[in-house]
Every structure is written in C-alpha cells, then in structure tokens.
C-alpha cells in the first residue's frame, strides 16, 4: 500500500512538473526578458491613440474565467456520477476524475500563456497608445511621414508599450472558451440537457469575443493582434483536448480510455497505472 501511495504521489508530482515546465518560458521572460525594441514612422497613425483603462482587467479575466470553469467542471462531473456509487467510493471517483480534467486544463493554459509571452517579447510590436505612453524625447515636426525613427528615448519608459502582438487577453479568452465548449460536448451527453449545454457553450464564446473586442476599443491592441490571439488560444485548446486529453474520454477512475494503437495503449497504461492501482486496491 505504501508503495502504491508513493507511486500515486510521484505521478501527481510528475504532472505538476510538466505544467511548470510549460510555464517556464513565461517565468523566465518576465524575470529577465526585454521586448524587442523597434522604431516607428512619424506618419504612423495607428500608435497615436490615448491611454485608456482596460474594460476587462487581467485580474478580472483570470478570476472570472477560472471560477466559471471550475463551477462548470465540478457540476458536470457530479452530475455524471453513477447513481449507484455512494460514500467513499464516490468521493474517490469524483476527486480523481476532477484531478485529471483540471490538470489537463492547467497544462494547456500554461502552454497558452507561454506561447503568448514568447510572441510578445520576440516581436515587440508597438501598442496603439505607444506614443502617449512612451512620450519619446523627439518630435516629428518638420520630419517626413515615412521617416523611420530608431534613435529615441522614452521619457516615460514602459516595456508593456512594446508588447502588442499578440493579445494575451484574446488568447486566454479563446483558450478557455474552446476548452470548456469541447469539454461540455464530450462529457455532458444527456439529451435533456442539450439546450443547457448549448447555452453554456454560446455564453463562453460570447464572453471571449466581448473580451477580445474590448482590447481594440480600449486601444490596447491592433485588430490583427486580437485576431491572432483568438486563433492561437483556440488552437491551443483544441490541441490540448484532442491530443493531450484524447477528447476527454475517461474511465470510471478518470484515467484516459484505451486507444486502438497498441503503443498508445502501453503509454496510457504506464502513465495511469499507479493512480488506478492505488484506488482499486483501497476498494478491495
């Protein structure tokens, strides 16, 4: 029993290490990174917008989306519990299934954040309010509109003004919307709840689209930044659910179901053996 419990702890620790590894690029760039420094054209009207506060702040975005996802997943998995399962057995089944789904969501989410961060620091695109935020020590009076200014100093230096591409808000919103929609499509199959499922899926996309559009109206991003963010976030969620989670097809204990490919079966069985054995042994 001690060995099985030890293996179970090792598996959870291993999962958390992998999630941290996908988050590592963001962590490193945030600590020591500096966005690519590019110049600007005097006649570029796209970077002359005023500074405005965010309609949807980062803290609001992450808090609201995380809470909604937790509520939907917790409620859905509770509804899916077999009615004949009660007591300690039900708690183990419920907890382990939740763990598998949430760790897969976390893995994809950290990957999405890291991809966004790498793009922001590598490209260094100027935000629509760059001039108002940077306040360069030179003016474009008497200069040609097509003159490219590189030698300047921001009197109010702010590296965030160079991180327009691509939109992190849009990427995160799209990731959560696509993930939760695919999750509901896979896990909530009761015919009586078809309209509720469709409503939740629609609501997720409505909120994601609203969040993305506010980044344009708040002059935080160019339209192309928002479009790319939506695409990247959606693709990250799709790949996470399709490939890492195998369409969220889980067994009674939350482990991924077997695939037809024998090699894939061996990998899945090896990855889940410790957790499955630990739970089964306690039931005997």
Radius of gyration: 23 Å
Number of helices: 8
Distance between the termini: 12 Å
The SS-based structural class is mainly alpha
Question: What fraction of the residues are assigned to beta strands by DSSP?
Answer: under 5%
Query: Strand order of the main beta sheet, please?
Result: 1-2
Which word captures the global form? elongated
What is the averaged pLDDT score?
85
Share of helix, binned: 55-70%
Largest sheet: 2 strands, antiparallel
Report the oligomer: single chain
Topology diagram in text:
Blueprint: H1 2-32, E1 40-41, H2 58-80, H3 87-123, H4 130-134, E2 148-149, H5 168-187, H6 194-217, H7 223-244, H8 262-283
Description:
With 284 residues, the chain is an all-alpha fold. The chain has one domain. 65% of the residues lie in helices and 1% in strands. The chain has 8 helices and 2 strands, in the order H-E-H-H-H-E-H-H-H-H. It has helices at residues 2-32, 58-80, 87-123, 130-134, 168-187, 194-217, 223-244, 262-283; strands at 40-41, 148-149. The chain has a two-stranded antiparallel sheet. It is elongated and about 80 Å long.
Summary?
With 284 residues, the chain is an all-alpha fold.
List its traits:
disordered C terminus, mainly alpha, two-stranded antiparallel sheet, 284 residues, single chain, elongated
């Amino acid at each position: 029993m001690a060995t099985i419990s030890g293996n179970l702890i090792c598996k959870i620790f291993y999962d958390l290490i992998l999630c941290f590894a996908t988050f590592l690029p963001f962590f490193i760039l945030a600590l020591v990174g500096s966005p690519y420094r590019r110049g600007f054209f005097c006649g570029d009207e796209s970077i002359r917008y005023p500074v405005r506060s965010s309609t949807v702040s980062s803290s609001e975005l992450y808090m609201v989306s995380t809470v909604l996802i937790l509520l939907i997943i917790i409620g859905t998995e509770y509804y899916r519990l077999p009615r004949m399962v009660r007591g300690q057995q039900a708690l183990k089944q419920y907890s382990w299934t939740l763990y598998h789904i949430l760790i897969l969501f976390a893995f994809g989410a950290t990957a999405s954040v890291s991809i966004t961060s790498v793009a922001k620091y590598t490209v260094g695109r100027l935000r629509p309010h760059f001039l108002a935020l940077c306040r360069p020590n030179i003016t474009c009076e008497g200069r040609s509109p097509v003159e490219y200014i590189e030698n300047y100093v921001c009197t109010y230096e702010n590296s965030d003004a160079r991180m327009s591409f691509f939109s992190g808000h849009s990427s995160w919103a799209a990731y959560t919307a696509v993930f939760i929609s695919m999750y509901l499509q896979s896990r909530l199959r009761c015919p009586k709840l078809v309209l509720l499922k469709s409503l939740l899926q629609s609501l997720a996309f409505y909120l994601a689209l609203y969040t993305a559009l506010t980044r344009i109206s708040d002059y935080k991003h160019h339209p192309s930044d928002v479009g790319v963010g939506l695409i990247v976030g959606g693709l990250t969620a799709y790949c996470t659910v399709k490939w890492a989670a195998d369409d969220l097809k889980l067994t009674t204990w939350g482990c991924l179901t077997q695939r037809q490919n024998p090699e894939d079966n061996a990998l899945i069985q090896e990855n889940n053996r410790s957790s499955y054995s630990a739970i089964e042994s306690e039931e005997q």
